[in-house]
Fold each of these.
Amino acid sequence: MFWNHRVLRRYEEGEEFYYIVEVFYNDEGGILGWSEKEYVFGETLDELDTILVWMKSALDKPVLDEAELLAQMDENNHE
């Protein structure tokens, strides 16, 4: 299993929002799940800086749509 930061599009009460979350993958690269919402914290300022760099790199990847991911996961669970 591995993870990275990704941008996740979520609709709440009819409005579109974007979050940077941790996405967890299986060994084949399939998405297993994601964090609800990401909070930035660390034990040092250097650690915070590193995490912010990782989070910023999520903007260079395609946006994940939460509704589509949930539908795919539901479909996979019923196979």
Amino acid sequence: MKERQSDIKRSTGDHSDLELAQGCRHKDRQFQELLYRRFAPKMLGLCRGYFSDRDTAQDVLQEGFIKVFQRIEHYKGEG
């Protein structure tokens, strides 16, 4: 089931991207989930553009989020 952008925003608690990143820096699982819920749909669409196989696209998405969470301390709120 596809979530609308307004539903995603509401489900992520209306936190800014920077607030989500700060929560993730503190290894807060709730903030990690909120960040994932906000960006996963768009990122999966991008992955699907490169990989026609849905399972492969989801694997790439998962690997991408692992890297995001490992490197979140470098995020400065730009871009």
